[in-house]
Every structure is written in structure tokens, then in C-alpha cells.
Amino acid sequence: MSEVEEIYSILNKTYKKQGWWPIFSNEKGSSEYNVGAPRDDNDRFEIIIGAILTQNVAWKNVEKALGALKKIKILSPRKLHKAEDKIIASCIKPAGYYNQKTIKIKNFLNWFKTINYSFDELKKLKTDILRERLLEINGIGPETADSILLYAMDRKIFVIDAYTKRIFSRLNLTSIDDSYDSVQKFFHKEFNGTIKKYNEYHALIVAHGKDICKNKPLCSGCCLNHTCFYYSEIQS
Ligand code: SF4
């Protein structure tokens, strides 16, 4: 078992199943985890919009934005594309950067329209081609593209974010200055999991980075401190 696999096991035991991607429930007025998303193309679309909205903002704010889009029944490709920018912007205001995010959503939809808003067409594209297409859309960077690929399109690709870089550099397995692609290559080489495990691992990393391995890390209570370079350095 590689060290990256061992860390997965520890995080999994500590934080338990995360069950991403959450889907907004109108009845509950909040996100539901462990629903087995994507169950259908509606889930896929919601995940894509959620992946754009969550850029630089906590999920609880995204939830409110998704709830507002659902409330006025425009969270579907054609309806959202037709909706006026100011309507979308007012719904997604809680997710911050709402004018820019409205443009990003519209940029995605402009491209999606070229394939007739068809998830069947998306599914036909090989992962590297689909990734290239997503990255060509203004406002979709590697983290958003890979979140879409993994969580909406069930593609085996590791999502790298600031938490991943912070935790794994403190563990001395990557460097904080490593590029997105190089950290991703490292995970693809070291973690031989299924798509489900890739899904869980990223979610576990987020849980750990959010609650324990914060900017100011809470090392004494950390499940990884026995193997952590940063912790051993501050102890010595
Ligand atoms: S021991 Fe501290 S620095 Fe290391 S992973 Fe845990 S919280 Fe992060």
C-alpha cells in the first residue's frame, strides 16, 4: 500500500463516508449528501453549476444560490441559458463574485448549446478531450474542470485544490510550489482507487483541510500527525 493509500484509509476511518456530490433538496431547503449523485442528467447539470459557483466560496453559500435557482425553476440548461443575466446574478448573489460567475455559467452554456445541451454527447467524449473542451471555456480552470469530470461525468481524475496542496506539502509528499498538473500526476501514480474512491478522497481532503489542517493547523488532535513532516519539525 502506498503512503497516499494509507492516508486515504486513515482519513476514511476518521471522517467516515462523505457521500459527495451534495444535491440541493427543495423539501429540506439544504444540500443532501449520500444520494448517489449523479443519478441523472439533472444531477449532472446541478453539479456543473455547483462546481462553477463554489469557486472561492464555502459550500453553504453555494447552497443558497442553487436553492434560489431551483426556486424559480431555472436550474436546467435551456432555461438557465435563456434567463437574463440580472436574474441569474440575483439568484447566485450569496455565492459571491456573482456577475463574474453569471458570465462563467453563460460561457459554459454557450458551449453546451453547440452540442445541443446533450449529456449523451458529453458522455461520448473521451476524458482528455472533454477536459480540453472544458478548459477552453473562459472561467473554467483545472479544478473546476476536474470537479465536473469526476463528480458530474464519473471520470477517474483526481481533483487538486488548495487543501490538497497544503496538506500533502505539510506531509512532505508534494511541494507547495508544485503545479496543479504535477500534484495531479502524483495522485494518479500513487492512488490506484476506483472512481468512487477518487470521489471520496477529494471530499476527505476537504474535510481534513477545513477542520484540522487549517492555515493554523490543529496538529495535536490530527489523525495524520504520526506521519507528518510539518508536525515532526515543530516538535523538534
Ligand atoms: S499534523 Fe498538522 S500539519 Fe500535519 S496533516 Fe495534521 S494538521 Fe496538518
Succession of helices and strands: HEEHHHHHHHHHHHH
Rg: 18 Å
Give the CA-based shape: globular
Oligomer: single chain
Distance between the termini: 28 Å
Query: How much helicity do the residues have?
Result: 55-70%
**pLDDT below 50 for ≥5 consecutive residues: which ranges?**
none
Order of strands across the widest beta sheet? 1-2
Biggest β-sheet strands, sense, barrel:
2 strands, antiparallel
Summarize the structure.
With 236 residues, this protein is mainly α.
Structure overview:
The protein is mainly alpha-helical. Helices cover 60% and strands 3% of the residues. The chain contains 13 helices and 2 strands, in the order H-E-E-H-H-H-H-H-H-H-H-H-H-H-H. It has helices spanning 3-15, 41-53, 59-71, 77-82, 85-92, 98-114, 119-124, 127-136, 142-152, 162-170, 180-190, 195-211, 229-235; strands spanning 23-25, 30-32. It has a two-stranded antiparallel sheet with strand order 1-2. The longest helix has 17 residues, at 98-114. It is globular and about 60 Å long. The two termini are 28 Å apart. The structure holds iron/sulfur cluster. Iron/sulfur cluster binds at residues 167, 170-171, 212-213, 217-219, 222, 224-225, 228, 230-231.
